Amino acid sequence: xxxxxxxxxxxxxxxxxxxxxxxxxxxxxxxxxxxxxxxxxxxxxxxxxxxxxxxxxxxxxxxxxxxxxxxxxxxxxxxxxxxxxxxxxxxxxxxxxxxxxxxxxxxxxxxxxxxxxxxxxxxxxxxxxxxxxxxxxxxxxxxxxxxxxxxxxxxxxxxxxxxxxxxxxxxxxxxxxxxxxxxxxxxxxxxxxxxxxxxxxxxxxxxxxxxxxxxxxxxxxxxx
Length: 224
Description:
Helices cover 61% and strands 17% of the residues. It is α+β, with helices and mostly antiparallel strands. Helix 4 (109-116) runs antiparallel to helix 5 (118-135) and helix 5 (118-135) crosses helix 6.
């Protein structure tokens, strides 16, 4: 009985020492390099969040740009062009500027697609865009409305100048020729104009230029 009592006492003393050591460890301050929630930790977390935010913003801008761009031709698609047209009209109204909207349709593209395939048609469209870009200024905008129809926003042109420019654009596309499977084929273009002034509206201007383009297309068909 004495041995057991003595052993129990020793065990109790050890437990007391262990408990005291644990309490002392809990009361002791942690090492500064390991303490959670320090200003350095907060700075690292903020830097990490800023990097993540910058990457997310860059991705958002990339997706927005792709949503407004024609993948084949690397120019604004209808959505992108209409966005730019609305911005430009707002600028024209505020600063009393002027501009012209040209809608241009590529002639004879469907027969080329039917005879030689869509890869041939794509080649024609790329050549058309290249020649149109050479005819306009860096401040002007060209977009693909869909299929074989394009729109051009041209700054600071009178109605007479805009009509003359539309004729030059037609001539530039008319001058293109292509060889597919040993056959030489030519494209063509018909253009219609709408003047952008202080009372312009994007939807109405597109309709006006589009209607003028179809009138011009019928005229060219009759001439041909």
